[in-house]
């Protein structure tokens, strides 16, 4: 590969089970090696420092998404599904879908959901607290249950097949990595899961009062084409479930392991929002995304040749000691703004207000009812090529 001779080289498989299970040591190695590191295993360059990750994400002119934001280069490889008109598109094609979804998912548009989501959170927490011994799996009972209780209804999905949502997201987030055992394990389900998700994107499959119906109404107005509308619905179903599940799990894990921070939240429940952002910084539920260089471009003096892939380590940037004081500490007194856990620039997470509303309602319902959260066993990780995800979070809670 041209221009790699001068670069620090890392031969670690960054998508190996060991690296995915415990990425922090890898992140230290990558940040320490230099501003641009050559990953020989995948023949790509990588950025792991906050300054370079932030700058590359902000520079869509030189670092495009249209060739795919995974390892696969859409210039040379057939994508596993028609590309996303948001995530995998560049201006000007990105503009119209982005504007439509931005308006539908804006804080002002979500206000009507808050009271119902708050009630749903209170019901769920009451049910978990009264139905057992106070010992339960906070991953399945809270982090999975709550988004699945509120988000599919908000999109306007029908009642059948919702159990496909998490497996489909798992497939989609795995697909940004190499074709490894994680991808092969689900290969037999891809056709069936895709068929279900694609069917839910049709106007007839959606209720007439959800995000999905508003996307179709935008097509009626001519703000989107009729071909784009189902793909924008698909973006919600792909990006909107697993992310919040593992983001909420990150919050619960953070508080279970930082009891003094839980006390702080209980004293000041209005910290729920900053707590969620700090948990997203601290765990980075979405760990990585790629970009592709549109021209020969230099980063910190290192040439990145046109058409080559660059892997951005959001999780490493979010714990860069040159950007954050005591980066490994989960701390509600810090200002986490500037973290890249939701990305940065024109592709920055358009669903972040949805995620924040879920976190805020669930955390305030819990904070009002639970004095302590503690782990009763080591939490289980679920491995995914892109998501820092969970399998279990066994906890004991004490009611107030
Ligand atoms: C984009 C993370 C929740 C929908 C992104 C990106 C990140 C991200 C890092 C940027 C991708 C890039 O730059 O290539 C997260 C995290 C979440 C979350 C950590 C929860 C904790 C959601 C939710 C939705 C959503 C709830 C839908 C309601 C999207 C969409 C994009 C996106 C459609 C593409 C935006 C574009 O390309 O313009 N998200 N997300 N996300 N997210 Fe999220
Ligand atoms: C999409 C999308 C957006 C963000 C993340 C993502 C699977 C997908 O537009 O389909 O991950």
From TrEMBL:
Q: Which UniProt keywords apply?
A: Heme, Iron, Metal-binding, Monooxygenase, Oxidoreductase
Name the species this protein comes from.
Streptomyces griseorubiginosus
Could you state a single Gene Ontology molecular function term?
Answer: monooxygenase activity
Its name, as the record gives it, is Cytochrome
Q: Which Pfam families match?
A: p450
Please report which protein family the annotation says this sequence is part of: Belongs to the cytochrome P450 family.
Tree of life domain? Bacteria
- Cited InterPro entries: Cyt_P450, Cyt_P450_CS, Cyt_P450_sf
């Amino acid at each position: 590969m041209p221009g790699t001779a001068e670069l620090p080289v890392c031969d670690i498989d960054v998508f190996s089970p060991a690296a995915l299970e415990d990425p922090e040591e890898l992140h230290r190695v990558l940040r320490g090696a230099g501003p641009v590191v050559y990953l020989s295993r995948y023949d790509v360059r990588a950025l792991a420092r906050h300054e370079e990750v932030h700058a590359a994400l902000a520079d869509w002119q030189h670092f495009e998404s249209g060739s795919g934001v995974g390892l696969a280069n859409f210039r040379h490889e057939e994508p596993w599904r028609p590309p996303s008109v948001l995530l995998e598109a560049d201006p000007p094609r990105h503009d119209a879908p982005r504007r439509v979804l931005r308006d539908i998912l804006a804080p002002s548009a979500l206000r009507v959901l808050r009271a119902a989501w708050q009630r749903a959170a209170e019901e769920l927490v009451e049910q978990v607290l009264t139905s057992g011994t106070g010992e339960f799996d906070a991953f399945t009972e809270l982090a999975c249950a709550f988004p699945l209780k509120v988000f599919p209804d908000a999109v306007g999905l029908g009642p059948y097949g919702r159990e496909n949502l998490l497996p489909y997201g798992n497939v989609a987030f795995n697909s940004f990595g190499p074709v490894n055992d994680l991808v092969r394990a689900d290969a037999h389900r891809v056709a069936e899961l895709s068929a279900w998700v694609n069917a839910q994107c049709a106007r007839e499959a959606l209720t007439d009062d959800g995000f999905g119906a508003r996307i179709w109404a935008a097509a009626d107005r001519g703000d989107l084409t009729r071909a784009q509308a189902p793909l924008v619905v698909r973006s919600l179903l792909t990006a909107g479930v697993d992310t919040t599940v593992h983001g909420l799990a990150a919050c619960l894990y953070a508080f279970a392991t930082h009891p003094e921070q839980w006390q702080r939240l209980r004293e000041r429940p209005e910290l729920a929002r900053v707590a969620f952002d700090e948990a997203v910084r601290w765990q980075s539920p979405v760990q990585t995304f790629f970009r592709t260089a549109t021209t020969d471009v230099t980063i910190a003096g290192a040439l990145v040749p046109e058409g080559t892939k660059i892997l951005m380590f959001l999780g490493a940037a979010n714990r860069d000691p040159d950007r954050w004081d005591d980066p490994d500490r989960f701390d509600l007194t810090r200002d986490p703004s500037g973290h890249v856990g939701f990305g940065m620039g024109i592709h920055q997470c358009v669903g972040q207000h949805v995620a924040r509303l879920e976190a805020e309602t669930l955390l305030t319902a819990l904070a009002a009812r639970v004095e302590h959260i503690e782990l009763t066993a080591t939490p289980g990780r679920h491995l995914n090529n892109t998501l820092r995800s969970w399998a279990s979070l066994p906890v004991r809670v004490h009611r107030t």
